[in-house]
Structures are given as C-alpha cells and as structure tokens.
Write the structure tokens for this entry.
Amino acid sequence: MTEHRFENIGWTVGNHCNASCGHCYSWKVRKDSSEFLTTDDVDRVVEQLVRLGIKTVNLGGNEPIYTHGPDIRRTILPYIIRALADAGLPVGLTTNGASFFYLDKNHHDELLLINDIDFSLDSPFAVEHDLNRGARLHRLIVKSIARSVELGIDCSVITCGMRANFDKDYLSTFLSLTKMLGSEFRINTLKPVEPTLIDEMPTAGQFYEGFAFLMDNTSCITLGESCLTAFTGAGTEGCPCGTSSFRINAKTKDGRIPINPCVYAHEYKAGDLLTDDIFDIIVSPQFTDFGNRRKDIPQVCRDSGCEFLESCRGGCTSRAYLVNGTLNSKDPYCPQEYQDQFGRPDLPVEPEIGCYEGIRVHDNYLCTWIGEVNEDFQDERWTSLDQFTNGHHGDDDDDVLPVSRHHQVDVALLGGDSLARVDEAVPVRLGPTRGRA
C-alpha cells in the first residue's frame, strides 16, 4: 500500500453558488457542469477517504447547500454531513451564510454534527462585502455567526486577503468585528487563478506587515503559511497541499469526480473517485510533481543560499506556480528576498499555536492562518455592529469598487478568462446610521 501523509482534505460538493465573487477560484471550472452527486457517489467517496485514513473533511468551494444546482430543496448536503460523521470524520463547513441558515432551519441535527464553520466575509462592511459578492449576504453572515456561537459550534470569519483589504487599518477593523461577534478570524491570501488577479494580491510588505499585526493581536490557532514559519520558527514547514491535503472537485460535465493536490491548481486534476482507486490517484504524475516540490525544494531556492530553506521549502506551491508559471520557482513572498530588502518582519518567535479545545479542520490544510483576537485588543473607532452593517470603508458617502476589483463574466467573452477587471466605482449613498464612533 502506498505510504502517504494525507490527513485533511476539502470537498466541493456542487457546481452552483448563490454569490458571484470577483475573486472566485473555482467558478471557471464549475460553471459548465450540471452534473449532481448521488447518494451512491457520496458513499463511494467516503469509503475511499476512510481507506486512505483521512482525518478531517471541509465542505466548500461552491456554496455547499447547492449540491443540485439552484434547487435547494433537492440538496443532499445533510446526507453528506451525516455520512462523513458516521464514518468518524470531523466535518467543517465554509459558507456565505446560506448553507448554515438552511441547515439550521431544516436539518438541525446535521448542523450540530459539524465541527467548525467558516463564514466568508470579503470586507467588514456590508456595502463592500455585498458588492463584491453580487448578493446581499453580510447581514445573514452576522446573524449566522451569532447563532453558531449560541449553538456552541466553533466558527470563524474567513477572509481572502487581497491588496484592497489586507492592510493594518482593514485588519484592525476585521478584528474588532470578530471580537464583537465572538468568532475566530481566518485568512487565505489571494491565489491568482487567472493572471488578471496577480495585481490584486497583497504586496510583500502588506503580507508580512499584515500578519505581524495579526499575530501581535491574536492567539494563533493555525499557521499554514511556510513563508511565515521561516521567521516564526513554528507552524507548517513547506506547503501542505499535495502532501498532507488535497481537494475533491465537484462532479464534472462528463460525470467524473477528480481530485487535485490543491484547490487552486486546476491544471493538476487527476483521476475519478467513482472509478479509480484513490491510492492510484495520489501516485499519479499530477500529484507527485506537485507534492515533490515540498520534499525536494525548488532548485532556484537551493541555488540562492537561502537561510530559510528547510522551514520555508519554497513556500506556497500554487502561489509560486500561478505567478511564475512553473513549480520550480520561488514563492513571490520569498522570506529571504523580503529580509534582504526590508529586514526581518516583526513576527513573533516560536509562538504557541493551537486551539484551546477540540480541533480545526483547516489545521495543516491549505496555506492558511487562523487566530483569535486578544481580550485586550481595542480599536476605538468601532463600538457597534451597526457601524458594519450600515457602513463602508470610506470617510464619507462616496463611490465603492469591489474589494477584488473584478467581476465574473461569460468565459466565451474573454477568450477563456472568467474574471474581468472593474474600472468604474459604484455610487454608494448611506443613511445617517453609517458613521463611525
């Protein structure tokens, strides 16, 4: 039997979503399929995961309640949750609020089987978040987090860190909101699945200064960013994708369920869980090429005399590939290059990492960070949830751009691209309850 270290994986259970995010990493590959999972498919996938020895499964990628297109009444998400739980696999859920609301109302027992939930917010402010999502979802998120806390389900606000929302001002605002809500805070920095998104990635300065600010004001629960591990001396060494985690894709238009070593690495899809043995898929060239980068470390890193070689191990594989076009390349947030140019970032050394009780399904899954705001943290600008539900980041009534600076388009219109840049701001006029304290 093939030896492996795969433990924590993600599963995209459908192709439909009720939002249209301008930075979506999966819409391009989901949009052409109208195939739906069956309960037999689910049983087959779960059986394969159990044989492989997987420890946790997170459901996300689309809005998970939509397993059968927009007809929410046909959903088999409750069946999927129970099948995983019955197999002894802790289940996580990433949602824009819709899945949580539907489960709480119609399948409460299955909701209570979930280990932890990530609620997606692109901005602390309703106007900005809803514009970027193409749907009014901010209020639903706020209510759902309150309900999750009431039910005792561990939860976090999950944010895609982009150039427009990953600075100290925004991050301080996010921490203020999560403190009011009683949730944790999770960050995945933007991975540019299409070239047009590269300019929306946080700069290297934003990346290191932003995480230094976060780790100074939170207790760290998960640290899966090996570029940060290089400086902290704690956390994941090298990229977990393709070595300890992978992604199960939504059912394709030809009826397959492929997997890929990283949710962002669409070009590395392999196999079909319905017809292939999972042990054969994980030794396919797509998986070994991707996973060996962490083991072997890119030659360009080895040749640079990097002092962080063993802890960073080339950084995030998908980020390097998507920016540079090759696996044998440095992470654009290379810690050695940053230190040589700007000095060591103000990150803590050997911080304590872990949650107070239980587990998080995103531990050692994806290049992610999770923290819980310190009790003594305070940003005096923010004193009420109304400031977030009725406000936006500007100082006055003004025009607003999507946080991602992009929107979804018909692939055929852009020669294969699914995201287009937004150049014109949307006028926003807010009522008197918007103002800051």
About this structure: The chain has one domain: 8-295+348-373. DSSP finds 17 helices and 15 strands in the chain. The first helix runs from residue 27 to 30. The CA atoms of residues 164 and 403 lie 6 Å apart.
